[in-house]
Amino acid sequence: MKQKFSGACLCGQVTYTAHCAPVIVAQCHCNECRRLSGAGHSVGAMFAADAVTVSGAIREIEYTSAQQSVVTKVFCPTCGSPILGKNTGSPDHVTLTLGTMDDAGDLKVGVVIFERDAPHWDTLGDDVMRFATQPDWSPDP
Ligand SMILES: [Zn+2]
Ligand SMILES: [Zn+2]
What we know:
Bound molecules: zinc ion
Helix content: under 10%
Number of domains: 1
Distance between the termini: 49 Å
CATH topology: Metal Binding Protein, Guanine Nucleotide Exchange Factor, Chain A
Structural class: mainly beta
Shape: globular
Largest sheet: 7 strands, mixed
Number of strands: 10
């Protein structure tokens, strides 16, 4: 397992480095993760907080979780990319978003949480057309 992970937001203003291996990688379908990601779930890797450094200007939002802990989501104020999450229920850890990592190829999802809230369109069946990249295709008028 790699012991160093780096990442950046879409516009490149926020970067981060984690100098350890993650504790766990979780895919979460909760209401807040769906709204923050704009998709049906988020995927985050939990790291020891003291092993993670973030540089660049950030913005934060806070909300209270179902367990009454305070969750802080950190994002880039310029491009909006979600960078990491913190939770007062686990104050020694931060969760970095896998989609912003430069190379998360060594990692795999270890747990799915809030599966009851997973939208049906986030678990696509075999009957959906797939393209390796953006296709030369547009919807019928
Ligand atoms: Zn950005
Ligand atoms: Zn969530």
